[in-house]
Design goal:
The protein is of the alpha+beta class. About 20% of the residues lie in helices and about 35% in strands. Strands 9, 10, 11, 12, 13, 14 and 15 form a seven-stranded antiparallel sheet that branches. A hairpin with a 3-residue loop joins strand 6 and strand 7.
Length: about 450
């Protein structure tokens, strides 16, 4: 039994026993007071709450607690700032296996039920980067019962009611959507990043939670002409086969097979729109409060590699007096994140590489870091707390084995051009000479002190 629930029951028993003790000792105020003060082992009611669980033999039939009346959330004390998350107790879900799934989803959406994330119980606000979400209900595992689907600008979750509590059925970042049509039922990943390649993957989910995937279908603009043609590269990445217990890898396919797969899956989205409901998870009075809350989210949510390996700073990107929170996640895979706060809303942007720069009070950000022959250029705008990408280009390098010379090709918005034309496209969007990097970096603990 959870310790906080035990203390609650003990308190209830104390309130029940007090009048009984009074009656047994003379039915008077003085007699009641004398009897209570005569308990040498306990000085007051508060101390009784600390009785060890093994010392209290509580019959579950003695005290009936209505679950809906118990809503306990334990917020972190300031002395526990190194912890990742505010813990929440699933009191309402206890022994309510038969509760309607929609009631479970409602309680979870309202923060009254927690969910397990990496062996910790967290509330819904700890699952997302933004404080605004969208949600809908859809049956994607064909068990006849709707699941809860939630997303913000980055993260998507499919939540299923299991044994009276919400459970994470699926979690994904960017480009994931639930699908339930006559032809398909599951989760579709459809990503086209604008760099001359795209990926499509459809995930079927069974009622028992098991998944089946045909493989990740991919297209790469091999001849770099900006269009899909037979000279390009098409393949299926099979990945790890659990039944064979080995990594299968990928196989190349022809253009016709890829186009057919894309038609059968992406076409399902045509004319098929889910009805999403918007909801704000948390209200923040100040930007300091919002950024502290963000930094205390579980590391699994905001992609920090370790609490001693990140760098943080407060920077001014747009033209107001509210700074943005910058931090390097500590790993090249997850890169850098910038968090904004504007009129109560929190928004976040992540570039899974380093090297992001910005024009102070100019509302523009720029980055061109890459590796392994691929160097993307991304230009972003921050306006009224919202991030948007306003320019996309990339550079590819090529090695000529005959001449032993490396040469480069340049693309802007999918169109090949000369280096001069490429640089002109960038100049139209941003003045790189005015871009700066965060001048002072702090540890997480230092940043939390600054925000306080």
């Amino acid at each position: 039994m959870n310790e906080r629930l035990k203390r609650y029951i003990v308190r209830c028993k104390i309130l029940i026993l007090m009048p009984l003790m009074a009656a047994l000792t003379g039915c008077g105020k003085d007699a009641y007071t004398d009897s209570f003060e005569g308990m040498e082992s306990v000085e007051n009611v508060e101390n009784l709450e600390h009785v060890e669980s093994e010392e209290v033999n509580i019959n579950s039939d003695e005290v009936n607690i209505k679950h809906d009346a118990v809503d306990i959330t334990h917020n972190e004390d300031e002395t526990q700032e190194s912890e990742d998350v505010n813990y929440s107790v699933n009191i309402e879900a206890a022994n309510e296996v038969d509760i309607d799934p929609m009631e479970i989803y409602e309680r979870f959406l309202n923060g009254r039920l927690s969910i397990e994330l990496e062996e910790k119980q967290v509330t819904i606000s700890n699952l997302f980067w933004d404080n605004d979400i969208k949600y809908c209900f859809l049956d994607i595992d064909s068990d006849g019962i709707d699941e809860l689907h939630i997303k913000d600008n980055v993260i998507y979750y499919a939540i299923k009611a299991v044994d009276g509590a919400p459970k994470i059925l699926f979690e994904g970042r960017w480009c994931y959507e639930p699908v339930a049509t006559d032809e398909l039922c599951g989760i579709l990943y459809d990503a086209n990043w604008g760099y001359g390649y795209e990926h499509i993957e459809f995930i079927q989910i069974s009622p028992d939670g098991s998944t089946e995937i045909d493989g990740e279908f991919g297209w790469s603009d091999e001849n770099e002409n900006g269009i899909m043609d037979a000279e390009d590269s098409f393949r299926i990445d099979i990945g790890y086969d659990a039944s064979l217990e080995k990594y299968i890898g990928y196989e190349y396919i022809d253009m016709e097979r890829y186009v057919q797969y894309k038609k059968e899956h992406s076409a399902q989205q045509a004319g098929y729109e889910l009805e999403w409901t918007e909801k704000r998870l948390k209200e923040f009075a100040t930007w300091q409060e919002a950024y502290i809350d963000f930094l205390k989210k579980p590391s699994a949510t905001i992609w920090v590699s370790g609490r001693d390996s990140e760098d943080y700073s407060l920077i001014y990107v747009d033209d107001d007096d509210t700074p943005e929170l910058y931090f390097y996640t500590g790993g090249a895979v997850y890169g850098e994140t910038i968090v904004s706060f504007h009129e109560g809303k929190v928004r976040s942007m992540n570039r899974d590489r380093g090297g992001i720069k910005y024009i102070e009070y100019g509302g523009l950000l720029y980055s061109d870091w890459g590796n392994m022959g691929f160097y993307p250029c991304n230009i972003y705008m921050l306006e009224k707390g919202e991030f948007s990408e306003i320019g996309t280009g990339w550079i590819s390098d090529h090695y000529d084995e005959e001449t032993a010379i490396v040469y480069y090709t340049y693309y802007w918005e999918g169109k090949e051009m000369t280096e001069t034309e490429y640089e002109e496209c960038i100049k139209e969007k941003i003045d790189k000479s005015k871009c700066i990097e965060p001048s002072v970096l702090y540890s997480r603990d230092e940043m939390l002190e600054i925000l306080k």
